[in-house]
């Protein structure tokens, strides 16, 4: 068996076209607006922000970037967030993480108005997600769910094993799958006999941050594997948390790195921003 590739680029392109068409249809009513705050000069963060700006422009979403030096005070950053909370032409606020050590990410995330929290990190949105209410969903987990649905991979009654328990990916993606009536197991660095758990899974989602950590022995025949990792080998090439070449021979579906989950994160950010703008304008989903 050789796995069918789940191309994040393909899924993202289709969703972004739909978003673009919706934004165009709204042009006489409003233009969705996204504010991005970048603190410091982290190379990866700057690259992510540039990608978000480009994607926003292509979708017809207004994007406003505020850059702040790494020694900015926490209060100054919080005040800027508060300013965007009250700015009517801004429907989504994103503060690029990580932040410098002297600034509390928790305080910054909680300062963003929940109705503009298009990253889906505010405790109110997380709580709503946990209880199955309408909420802005965290972008990467939301994107993973869309990829699984795009390929019509059954979720209800299936066993999903999440390898990783971060607040950004691991925990929320498990909750989203639980909301879809999957049976979910969380594994992490303290899990005894990881292979015992992953080899029973119908769906494996790898978010460990360890390059090519998941091997063929970790998965069962015919499983679907979603690789959230983005690591760099010694030769400078990119790879995921899954040994792609080895695992693809045993699974039914697998995501590549790059070109897998990555493009979906920005796509769902655009989706959330559009939904926020529509709510602000009182536009109902068709």
How would you characterize the overall build of this protein?
By secondary structure, the protein is an alpha/beta fold. It has 2 domains: 86 residues, Leucine Dehydrogenase, chain A, domain 1 (Rossmann fold); 125 residues, 3-Layer(aba) Sandwich (Rossmann fold). The protein is 40% helix and 15% strand. It contains 10 helices and 11 strands. The strands form 3 sheets. The protein has a 6-stranded parallel beta sheet. A 3-stranded parallel beta sheet has the order 3-2-4, with helices on both faces. It is globular. The N and C termini lie far apart (41 Å). The model has no long low-confidence stretch (mean pLDDT 96).
Distance between the termini: 41 Å
**Would you count the extended β strands for me?**
11
> What is the overall pLDDT average?
96
CATH topology heading of the largest domain: Rossmann fold
CA-atom Rg in angstroms: 19 Å
How much of the sequence lies in strands comes to 15-25%
Work out the count of structural domains. 2
Q: Write the CATH architecture name of the largest domain.
A: 3-Layer(aba) Sandwich
Assigned CATH superfamily of the largest domain: NAD(P)-binding Rossmann-like Domain
Which stretches are low in confidence, meaning pLDDT under 50 for 5 or more residues running?
none
* Helix content estimate: 25-40%
CATH top level of the largest domain?
Alpha Beta
| Discrete helix count | 10
Topology as H/E string? EHEHEHEHHHEHEHEEEEHEH
């Amino acid at each position: 068996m050789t796995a069918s590739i789940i191309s994040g680029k393909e899924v993202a392109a289709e969703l972004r076209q739909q978003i673009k068409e919706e934004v165009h249809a709204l042009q006489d009513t409003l233009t969705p607006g996204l504010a991005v705050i970048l603190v410091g000069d982290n190379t990866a963060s700057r690259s992510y922000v540039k990608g978000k700006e480009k994607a926003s422009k292509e979708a017809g979403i207004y994007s406003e970037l505020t850059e702040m030096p790494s020694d900015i005070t926490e209060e100054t950053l919080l005040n800027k967030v508060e300013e965007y909370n009250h700015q009517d032409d801004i429907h989504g606020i994103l503060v690029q993480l990580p932040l410098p050590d002297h600034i509390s990410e928790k305080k910054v995330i909680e300062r963003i108005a929940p109705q503009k929290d298009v990253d889906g990190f505010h405790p109110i949105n997380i709580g709503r997600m946990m209880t199955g209410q309408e909420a802005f969903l965290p972008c990467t987990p939301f994107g993973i769910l869309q990829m699984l649905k795009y390929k019509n991979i059954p979720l209800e009654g299936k066993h999903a094993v999440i390898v990783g328990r971060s607040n950004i990916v691991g925990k929320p993606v498990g909750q989203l799958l639980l909301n879809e009536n999957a049976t979910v197991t969380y594994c992490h660095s303290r899990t005894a006999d990881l292979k015992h758990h992953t080899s029973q899974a119908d769906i494996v989602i790898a978010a460990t941050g360890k390059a090519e950590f998941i091997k063929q022995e970790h998965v069962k025949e015919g499983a679907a594997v979603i690789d959230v990792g983005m690591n760099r080998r010694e030769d400078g090439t990119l790879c995921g948390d899954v040994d792609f070449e080895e695992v693809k021979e045993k699974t039914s579906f697998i995501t590549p790195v790059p070109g897998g989950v990555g493009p979906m994160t920005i796509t769902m950010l655009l989706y959330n921003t559009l939904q926020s703008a529509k709510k602000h304008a009182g536009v109902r989903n068709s």
